[in-house]
Each structure stands twice: as structure tokens, then as C-alpha cells.
Amino acid sequence: MTAMTDPKPVESWLTDMDGVLVHEEHALPGASEFIAALQEHGRRFLVLTNNSLFTARDLRARLLRSGIEVPEGCLWTSALATAQFLSDQKAGGSAYVIGEVGLTSALHDVGFVLTERDPDYVVLGETRTHSFENITRAIRLIERGARFIATNPDPTGPSPEGSLPATGSFAALITQATGIRPYFVGKPNPLMMRSALNAIDAHSETTIMVGDRMDTDVVSGLEAGMRTILVLTGSTKESDVERFPYRPTKVANSIADVVELVGKLAPAPAVA
């Protein structure tokens, strides 16, 4: 594990979910202990995911089945970040959505109207039920002037059987047809990190981002002004780190190696 040189105390933590806490529905070593340590030391935290399929309640249940107990309010998805972004851009707007309940419920919650008639936005998220009809409608609405938004740029997602086409792949199809590229809200856009920080009233200088990917978690954490920890239980291997023009603040074998840092890097108790 490389050295953590910044002397600032750490008041808040952001952590990716897949590849850091879980792998294909199974908890990774140290995941439950890490969440417990954050709660024990009273640290503000959010568990982040680019996956827009599920609501925070769904994800809490998924993690609980893996033996990791995370409060619903401590989960932040690209769907929630997208809904917040769109609400800030055009309060009470309208959207044609290709996505699942995680995205549609997030947009409903911020007051958006979901419609196929002259929407302000076409919003593309993760779904397992893509259809030729839906994609054709999205293309035609964008051609008529709807703004194109996508929850995340991931081209593929994992499954026990192998890779699945994800939001980025379908976004590329629509871009090829329309010539219009979407605005991606999720990682590696640091906007998702900023929205997560705002959600827990945290400051980037006193927050650490933990992730398993250099090209999404680490770069977006760095661009949002945070210290970063790369764990080697997911996509990026140790031999890959040197290929990137930027580095994480620390490299750890797994989240189990990060547990002890929660207490060590916490602010000193106030003197009465």
C-alpha cells in the first residue's frame, strides 16, 4: 500500500460498489467491516454506482443479501445524479426515458414528467429490455430537438455469463444515427462526485474516493479534488496503474486494507 501523504483529516468517504464492496452479488473481504467502521466513527459516506437500473432501496436489499448493511440514504446512483442534474437544468421539465425503475422513479421524485410527446430531454439509462421501437423513438425525438442525456458511458456491464451491452453501447448506436453525442452524467464525469459530495454536505478536501477503476473512479475523484484509493479487487490491476498519466493517492489490495484508515485519518476529537 502506497503512502497517504495529505495531512488533512478525513471527514467523509465515497466508495464505488461493484469491484470494491461486492463482486457478482458476493461481498468482498472487508466490505462489511469497512461500512461498520464508517458508522462507528461517525463518518459521512455514500456508496456510488454507475448502474441506473435499481432504486436505492433495491440496492440496499441487494447489499443486505450479501451481508453488507448500508442505509438507503447512503446509496447514490447515476440515476439519482442524473435526476438532480436535470432538475437543476430545467425544473419541472419533461423527458422520454429508456431505462428502468431506478431512473424513472428518480426523475418522478424531482418533478419531471415522463412523456413521448415533444420532451425536453431523451434520457438513456441501463435497461435489460431495449427494443427497436424505443430506440427508433429516441432517435426521432433527438432529431426533432430533444436534448440527449445518458446516465453513464459504460459500454458493458458484468454478469455471471460474461459481459452485457450497457448504456454506453446503446448511446453510441443513437449517436451514430443522429450525429448527436449525449451528455453523460455518471463517472468519469466529476459532476457525479460533486453531486454526491453535495448530497452529504461534504468537502472534497476532506473526502476520500475509493474505487477499483483508474479510468472512472480515480480520475473522477481526482478531478473533483479528492484523494483517491484504488483497490485491486476489480477492473484495474496493479500492473495497469503505471499506464495512466495520473495516479491514485494510495493503492490497496482490497477494501479490507482500508478499514484501519477510517479511524486513523479521522479528525481528532474536540477538546472540551
Q: Which labels suit this protein?
A:
272 residues; alpha/beta; Rossmann fold; six-stranded parallel β-sheet; five-stranded parallel β-sheet; 9 helices
Rg result:
19 Å
Spatial strand sequence of the major β-sheet:
5-4-1-13-14-15
Tell me the span between the first and last alpha carbons: 36 Å
- Biggest β-sheet: count, sense, barrel? 6 strands, parallel
Written description of the protein model:
The protein is globular and about 55 Å long. It has helices spanning 31-40, 56-65, 78-89, 101-109, 132-143, 167-178, 190-199, 214-223, 259-264; strands spanning 12-16, 22-23, 26-27, 44-49, 75-77, 94-98, 113-114, 121-124, 147-150, 156-157, 164-165, 183-184, 207-211, 227-231, 250-252. The protein is built from nine helices and 15 strands. It is an alpha/beta fold and 272 residues long.
Task: Tell me briefly what this model is.
By secondary structure, the chain is α/β, with parallel strands linked by helices.
Secondary-structure blueprint:
Blueprint: E1 12-16, E2 22-23, E3 26-27, H1 31-40, E4 44-49, H2 56-65, E5 75-77, H3 78-89, E6 94-98, H4 101-109, E7 113-114, E8 121-124, H5 132-143, E9 147-150, E10 156-157, E11 164-165, H6 167-178, E12 183-184, H7 190-199, E13 207-211, H8 214-223, E14 227-231, E15 250-252, H9 259-264
Helix pairs in contact: 3-4, 3-7, 5-6, 7-8
